[in-house]
Amino acid sequence: MHPGTLIGVPQTDPSSQFDVATTVRRTDGGGLAADLDPGWDVGGGILNGGYLLAVAGRAAVLESPHAHPVALSATYLRAPAAGPATLTVSPASSGRTLANSLVTLADAGGPALVVQATTATLGHDEAIWAEPMPDAPSVEHCASAAELRHVAQPVDPLPGLSQRLDTRLDPATSGWAVGRPSGEPVIRGWMRFSDGRDADPLAMALFADALPPTGFALGRMGWAPTVQLQVLVRALPAPGWCLVEARGGDMAGGWVDEDYRIWDSSGRLVARSRQLARASRG
Known about the structure:
- This protein has helices spanning 17-21, 49-62, 145-152, 160-164, 201-207, and strands at 25-26, 32-36, 68-76, 83-94, 99-107, 110-120, 143-144, 165-169, 186-193, 226-233, 242-252, 255-263, 269-278.
- With 282 residues, the protein is mainly β.
- Strands 1-2-4-5-6-3-10-13-12-11-9-8-7 form a 13-stranded antiparallel β-sheet.
- A hairpin with a 2-residue loop joins β5 and β6 (110-120).
- α2 (49-62) runs antiparallel to α5.
- The protein starts with 16 loop residues before the first helix and ends with a strand.
- Residues 1-10 have low confidence and may be disordered.
């Protein structure tokens, strides 16, 4: 099997922080439950939207005959608290090549996230055509996002997501961290798990919401809460660093939309996403 594929459901490698933090288990009553890990926050105890989507994606795979999430469309109703959560998977159509379901993640306060999930089994087919990887400096010539985030927004402790992911930002898109925003809403960087875990389709749900908001590149600092996020996984990622690029589309009226592209270490486009968020007020 290709490193990074989901061999078992759920994948629970105790050496992987991501696998442990996204574990979905069956309860005695036949339901599904998870423990939302506070270590995947973006600051102020607010859990990252991609992390929450990965938990829901794992639940969808657990209840599917297929191994991989290939399309996840999430609506964020509110920010759930870290701690116990329940997941309800309502199956829809299912066939030989794909299955659909609706996943609802809830905490003690009620539903927090609703996800339309499509699962299938990805292979290693060559792309007929795929968007090429953009030019970017090597990892060694990029700066740690954790260090830059601290410069841009001094916080203690550093957000958990910045510690769980090793992200190296392209200097051409990280001037915001030193008071020189580029004026173009684009942020690009190399990304991998800090503990060495290889990326897989579930990781794409996280990576597609893990860069700083593109508003930073316009000098607008601050939290930009996700309202809706769709992630499409197109191929199994090869081991190694992924290049992740986020581009803002329109920022107006308190709203912003962003498009992500993710390429693996071989240069293959492996995922893309689009999200709508509230624009930062900073």
